[in-house]
Amino acid sequence: MSIFYDFHIHSCLSPCAEEEMTPFNLVNLAAIMGHVAIALTDHNSCQNCAAAMRAGEQAGITVIPGMELCTCEEVHVVCLFEELKAAEEFSSFVLSGIPPIKNRPEIFGTQLIMDHEDKILGSQDLLLTTASSISIDDVEKIIDGYGGVCYPAHIDRSSYSVISNLGMITKEMGFEIAEVSPTGDVDALKAKFPILESMKILTSSDAHRLDSMRPAELCLHTDNTIKSIINHLKNR
Ligand SMILES: [Zn+2]
Ligand SMILES: [Zn+2]
User: Fold this and answer.
1) Nearest Cα to 184, choosing from 211, 222, 230, 218?
2) The total number of structural domains that make up the chain
3) Which numbered ligand comes closest to the C-alpha of 14?
């Protein structure tokens, strides 16, 4: 079937996202917009994935537990997991390795942990937008070990992207997918970085607020289960 997707969405757990991005709100808006599957990808944490998945069950939309990891090179990498448990284990691992810098909500924004019905369960005290201890050279193998798939985020952007920060994307990094922003020029990127010709290109919203979520336009062709989608992305 056609899986209209958006695999890069932030909730109110990301300090830079609006508080209106509750798991309930973003999941239900994605469903109304016609998406079949979305992923919740907060910075360095999967702590709102359980709520989003439960909201997804109620809204009839597949929600993949995910994260936007910040590598030690400050490159953003989208990580998608087959199982919530593995996502949460990876989330704890990342949290144990980020700098012990406390969030200052008045400066960076709140980091709310919520349930599937907009109830606030707590907040994350450590600032989630710092660099983790994981290198771009190791991330693919690590995520594969957690049963997930990962790929560099918004490679066309001038900050926090593999190309902006490292100037290249290499075979050795192990990625088979790259994410290009909705405004990115895929042909120009391929001309400059021929490795992209052999990679799958995904485009997602990277929404941090409700009005930057995008209507369903792009789709994959596979079955509508997390397992099928992950297998499809891993070319299995
Ligand atoms: Zn990013
Ligand atoms: Zn993002």
Assistant:
1) 218
2) 1
3) 2
Domain that holds residue 49: 2-233
- The model carries a pTM of 0.97
Q: Give the Å distance between the CA of 222 and the centre of ligand 1.
A: 26
Q: Is the dihedral of CA 222, 227, 232, 236 positive or negative?
A: negative
Q: How far apart are CA 37 and CA 49, in angstroms?
A: 14
Give the distance, in angstroms, between the CA of residue 37 and the centroid of all CA atoms in the same chain. Answer: 13
The rounded Å distance from CA 63 to ligand 1 centre is: 19
- pLDDT, tens digit (0-9, with 9 covering 90-100), for 179-192: 999 999 999 999 99
* Nearest ligand for residue 40 CA: 2
> Which tokens is 7 given?
């695999």
Among candidate residues 112, 106, 107, 115, the one with its CA nearest the CA of residue 125: 112
Task: Write out the H or E segment, with its range, that includes residue 52.
Answer: helix 49-59
Nearest ligand for residue 8 CA: 2
If you write DSSP's letter for every residue of 140-161 in order, what string do you get? HHHHHHTTEEEEES-TTSSSSS
Provide the CATH number for the domain around residue 105.
Answer: 3.20.20.140
Q: Give the tens place of pLDDT for each residue, 31-58.
A: 999 999 999 999 999 999 999 999 999 9
End-to-end CA distance of the chain: 17
